[in-house]
What we know:
The protein is α/β, with parallel strands linked by helices. Helices cover 43% and strands 15% of the residues. Helix 12 (274-283) crosses helix 15 (337-349). The protein starts with 10 loop residues before the first strand and ends with a helix. 49% of the residues are buried.
Amino acid sequence: MAEPGLSHRKVAVIAAGGTGGHLFPAQALAEVLGGRGWRIVLATDDRVESHAQAFPAERVVTLASATVRRGDPLGIPKAALTIMRGVMEGRAALAEINPAVVIGFGGYPSLPALIAAITQGRPTIIHEQNAVSGRANRLLAPYVTAVASAFPTLRKASAHTQARAVQVGNPVRPEIRALADEGYAAPDDQIRLLITGGSQGARLLSELLPAALAALPEELRHRLHVEQQTRPESMAIARQIYADAVIDAELAPFFRDMAGRLARAHLVIGRAGASTVSELAVAGRPSILVPLGLALDDDQGQNAKMLSEAGGAEVAREAELTQAMLTTALATLLSNPARLTRMAAAARKLARPDAADRLADLVEITAR
Length: 368
């Protein structure tokens, strides 16, 4: 229920779900719009509802949704029926809420709310976080009022969609945005590594990184302080490898204070999700990125390419990655503070720390 006295304020429905890559920028936008006096409603599916407590919304609307999986022809009709049920639920919810605009952040959980809004003639926006337009956004792009993108390129989108896309950047959380004002200090005695995994395909990093670091020359190993997100089933093995190599390491399945850890890091190693790449740019941190090999459209590979071509990251393709290759790359970078500093500066040149404000501006222009 809306708070008393707020009924006169405009309502924005934000449709997001799935991974943090969709939710984090949605939350950043919600916080900016809330600061401008908007009321926020989150439309998501039941898989994400339990993780939405921190989302700054006065109400969470749960709509039926499903993922259409490639290679599963029998599952397509079932998924389509589920999404259409979500659309009918969305139409009823939007008729009650009467939002001024509906903003979607990609992924199948965003489809029901956006399709409902489009069929009711409401102003709509989609935001694409990746350098490759996702399938849900490609489906909706011809019908929405406005398209926003994080990167200058929007691969796999139609020429018409690319021509009308407004590049706003990728909204980041306020604590990450604050890092844009901090400089980069090259490693001196201690070298701090931050290793993140991501919600998908983290086993490779959990198991390969400890072995690669343990193979570094002793002089480098003894200077390391490693903070690594590690799968629970890989924790004991990784901890033992680090102990045997006399490497100072902190391991956990998830780090809550990511902004603080990113601020302290001299080098970041991880996947190349859109939020990760954008946060590295805003923080101005050098990185080694390992794009998820299972991604259907190589979205992580294209995200990493943006940072690599700017000089801010090294890219290691999953199919070609070996322990020896990773050890060599780490030894080269960690022995060259000047190069790390140049990479940090190059990454920061791609930063859009005001992305949430830019997207909020577009929302206000588009809303009725």
